[in-house]
Specification:
single chain, alpha+beta, Immunoglobulin-like, 2 domains, 6-stranded antiparallel beta sheet, 3-stranded antiparallel beta sheet, 2 helices
Length: 176
């Protein structure tokens, strides 16, 4: 049997061991925050916005042409263009001047010629919409939303053709 002193000594030892274990556990649990540090950095974010444009299809309907009239028949159509905000653009027709014609619905030998213009002034001065980017083309700046760009046309007076419906196409190009 153990003496009182031995028992007291064992009890003191157990208390010290328990206290030591508790302190060690607390150090382990708290060690994550006790020595933690933070640093800051900067994340740079970049993007490139490419210039982009679309050009819609449209129909220039001259309506009724009178071959006996002494004046040309004028027409106008709006073409939908949408370009990136701030992007400059040029519109021109790649259809050669000599190919700007409409043919009769049944008799392809019957042809009505026409011209396209960027402005009414160009029409008055007979400055046709060019077949390449450059002088006389339609110039604008994109807004990021669809813009209706007017294109003017004219069928010359006095073309000796038969009655009927005439159709043709002209290619429009947008350069940006």
């Amino acid at each position: 049997m153990k003496t009182y002193t031995q028992m007291k000594s064992i009890q003191d030892f157990n208390k010290k061991a328990l206290l030591g274990a508790l302190l060690a556990a607390g150090m382990v649990m708290g060690s994550g925050s006790a020595g933690a540090a933070t640093k800051s950095g900067v994340l740079t974010v970049t993007a490139k916005v490419a210039a982009a444009c679309t050009i819609g299809n449209a129909t220039l309907d001259f309506s009724a042409y009178n071959p006996n009239a002494s004046t040309p028949l004028d027409g106008q159509v709006n073409v939908a263009v949408n370009c990136t905000n701030g992007s400059p653009f040029h519109i021109f027709s790649t259809t050669a001047y000599s190919d700007r014609k409409m043919t009769h619905e049944t008799d392809t030998n019957q042809v009505l010629t026409y011209q396209l213009f960027a402005t009414i002034t160009d029409r008055t001065n007979n400055n046709s919409l060019p077949v390449a980017k450059g002088s006389g083309d339609l110039v604008g700046t994109g807004t990021g939303i669809t813009q209706n760009i007017p294109i003017f046309g004219q069928i010359g007076a006095g073309q000796n053709v038969i009655a009927g419906t005439y159709t043709g196409t002209a290619d429009l190009t947008i350069d940006f």
